[in-house]
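Duplicate of #3305? Posting structure anyway:
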């Protein structure tokens, strides 16, 4: 656990020094939602009706922006080889890097979501549902994205390939994330548990294949 904590700390320090990933994700999240609102004509009744789905779509798209760099830096400077030779299982390392990625990019999206909800005229009683859904759904997106980032490691135009790979897997999260109901939150929790159990193993297998 000390190694996992150290990896998360290092990844967060690197993300803090760069600063670009979090800023890029939040900026895209806010601007895309606002542009959608303008494109829909700014009708308050219409915005109220589509606000949850609109926020989820933009959050989903924003979550993919920084995925390409999740393992690329380690792959290019040789750190990935050292991580694979470490005593810590590669699956736990993948989980730690995914957690750091979510903290750096997912939490800012969750923090910005209520602001967008106000702009989109979303009812106040739906704010807690929205935050809870994002808190359960965005880690799932990060874990699924780690699989895509590992599968496309070293490939040209990896960002495009990641989008093609992970978007179909994101659809269930998107479907259940846009509604205010306890069963929907339970479904999102189930998706998160499944992703925690399966995604690190799938991504680790893809990483081993990439470095061969």
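Output from current build:
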């Amino acid at each position: 656990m000390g190694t996992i904590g150290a990896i998360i700390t290092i990844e967060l320090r690197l993300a803090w020094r760069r600063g670009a990933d979090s800023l890029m994700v939040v900026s895209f999240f806010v601007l895309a939602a606002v542009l959608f609102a303008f494109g829909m004509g700014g009708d308050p009744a219409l915005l109220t009706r589509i606000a949850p789905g609109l926020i989820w779509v933009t959050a989903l798209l924003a979550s993919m922006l920084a995925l390409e760099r999740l393992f690329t830096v380690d792959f290019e400077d040789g750190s990935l080889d050292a991580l694979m030779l470490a005593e810590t299982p590669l699956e736990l390392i993948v989980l730690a890097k995914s957690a750091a990625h979510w903290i750096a990019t997912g939490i800012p999206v969750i923090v910005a979501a209520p602001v967008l909800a106000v702009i989109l005229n979303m009812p106040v009683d739906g704010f807690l549902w929205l935050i809870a859904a994002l808190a359960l759904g965005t880690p799932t997106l990060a874990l699924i994205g780690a699989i895509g980032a590992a599968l496309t490691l070293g490939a040209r135009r990896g960002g495009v390939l990641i989008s093609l790979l992970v978007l179909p897997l994101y659809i269930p999260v998107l479907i259940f994330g846009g509604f205010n109901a306890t069963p929907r939150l339970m479904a999102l929790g189930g998706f998160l548990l499944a992703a925690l159990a399966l995604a690190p193993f799938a991504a680790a297998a893809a990483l081993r294949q990439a470095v061969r």
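Confirmed duplicate; merging threads. The chain has one domain: 2-211. The chain has a mean pLDDT of 85.
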